[in-house]
Amino acid sequence: xxxxxxxxxxxxxxxxxxxxxxxEFPRLRPRKRQPGGMAVTEADLKRFWSxxxxxxxxxxxxxxxxxxxxxxxxxxxxxxxxxxxxxxLYFSGTIIPEQHFACHHCDNPGCVNPHHxxxxxxxxxxxxxxxxxxxxxxxxxxxxxxxxKIARAIKTAPKYDGYLRDxxxxxxxxxxxxxxxxxxxxxxxx
Length: 190
Prior knowledge:
The protein is of the alpha+beta class and 190 residues long. It has 2 domains: 4-131, Homing Intron 3 (I-Ppo) Encoded Endonuclease, Chain A (Alpha-Beta Complex), CATH 3.90.75; 138-182, no CATH class. Helix content is 27%, strand content 15%. The chain has 6 helices and 8 strands, in the order E-E-H-E-E-E-E-H-E-E-H-H-H-H. It has helices spanning 42-49, 84-91, 122-131, 148-156, 163-171, 175-182; strands at 4-7, 15-18, 52-53, 62-63, 74-77, 80-83, 101-104, 117-120. It has a two-stranded antiparallel sheet. A two-stranded antiparallel sheet has the order 3-4. Strand 5 (74-77) and strand 6 form a beta hairpin. Helix 5 (163-171) crosses helix 6. The radius of gyration is 24 Å and the shape is elongated. It starts with a strand and ends in an 8-residue tail after the last helix. Mean pLDDT is 78; it is low at 1-37.
């Protein structure tokens, strides 16, 4: 039977922390399973929120604890290392289903403000990234062999017999790379 634990701590949020079954939070693997699910203690909440610089509801609340190389907060609870933004959503009463992500409206990986987070699928997260024009394209792609200037030159080069091979030799890239740029398979954004 699920019950909610209402915990008051010194934050702008009034947190309702659900007691969940293990199946609902599969990435959390404690050393000792508690019957009926995971009970979050007030000490857990205080330890978590003590590592957060809390500002107004509209501003990012940056994680001041351990972070991943990409800037996401990391917290250890019940013997498992978890992403701090996922735990923040959980502590605010939101359950993240399996195969779903805790996504940022603010695009700040260190933000744990539950008002800046939403639950979404991988596709929704990728669509959000594309909508905000944050995906790697052009020179920002790690595998890019040419610059924007070269791609524009290839797209606007005059046509003649064998021009693709000549462009490839001139820029020191493959014939296929020139074809992909010229026919819009790559570098579509320019």
